[in-house]
Design brief:
The chain has 9 helices and 13 strands. By secondary structure, it is of the alpha/beta class. The protein has a 5-stranded mixed sheet with strand order 2-1-3-10-4, sandwiched between helices. It has a 5-stranded mixed sheet with strand order 7-6-8-5-9, sandwiched between helices. A hairpin with a 4-residue loop joins β11 and β12.
Length: 273
């Protein structure tokens, strides 16, 4: 079984986690690193590289071309709808979905904070308008290093990625979702396969993670957001919460409910007003 993944240390660590769930007697697993558009260009903002999915497109193409049998993605990197001919056959049990502040234990007026995410930027500025939010690209280790090189007070990363790399000690604050609402799917790993081949990975699926992440993805899809717009959605097990905002955090609308479509419609109406 050939398992396709991005080639970063975090991505390969995550692919090995997935492989451990898929191993069974008589089945050999080979990890296949694949370079994506987001990996090739680490300087431009995501919106200048392409639409949402800059870290998954090439892996999906390899899956469709049968160069790999399973693709492992951070669910937050995926497009909010499945590519034609492909389906998420399994979501592994979700880990910490929160955003993490590294380099500080709280937000303070006038801080310089690094992030490439428009979602994080909008929410950070809504919390503290005097922040200087500076663009920061690269893998986890690179962004942690650049914090010191550029004299930033803090950087914001996904807590789950730091935990998976054994870098949890870098975290000064795990931001509660009512302050920084996570990206749809954050904390979950998605195992994507060709339509009709779901049985390859079905045994690894966590139904509760699937329920929550699919609701988040459906809401973001209905809103039409992605890397180009500050949109977020998170299901805490009881309630789905979503938001839309402008990039500078001057306005931000957050609502909670049970129906992804109805929630998206309410937020779109608020944004248009």
């Amino acid at each position: 079984m050939r398992v396709g993944s991005r080639g970063s240390r975090l991505a390969l660590t995550q692919a090995e986690v997935a492989a451990s769930r898929l191993r069974q007697p008589g089945v050999e697993i080979a990890l296949v690193p694949i370079t994506t558009a987001g990996d090739k260009d680490r300087s431009k903002p995501f919106g200048e590289i392409g639409a949402r999915g800059v870290f998954v497109k090439e892996i999906e193409e390899a899956l469709l071309a049968r160069r790999v049998d399973v693709a492992v993605h951070s669910a937050k990197d995926m497009t909010s709808s499945d590519a034609d001919g492909l389906v998420v056959g399994a979501y592994l049990e979700r880990e910490d979905p929160r955003d993490a502040l590294c380099g500080a234990s709280e937000l303070r007026p006038g801080m310089r904070v690094g992030t490439a995410s428009v979602r994080r930027r909008a929410q950070l500025l809504a919390l503290e308008p005097s922040l200087s939010v500076e663009p920061l690209r690269g893998n986890v280790e690179t962004r942690l290093r650049k914090r010191g090189e550029r004299g930033l007070d803090a950087v914001v990363l996904a807590a789950c990625g730091l935990d998976r790399l054994g870098l949890g000690s870098e975290i000064g604050l795990r931001s509660p979702p009512d302050e920084l609402l996570p990206e749809a799917g954050q904390g979950a790993l998605a195992l994507q396969v060709r339509t009709g081949e779901e049985e390859l990975v079905a045994a690894a699926d966590d139904p509760e993670t699937r329920r929550r992440v699919e609701a988040e993805r459906a809401c973001v899809f209905a809103i039409g957001g992605g890397c180009l717009a500050p949109v977020a959605a998170h299901h805490d097990g009881t309630t789905l919460t979503a938001l839309v905002a402008d990039e500078d955090g001057a306005w931000i609308e957050r609502r909670s409910g049970d129906d992804p479509g109805a929630l998206a419609a309410e937020l779109m109406a608020l944004a248009q007003n």
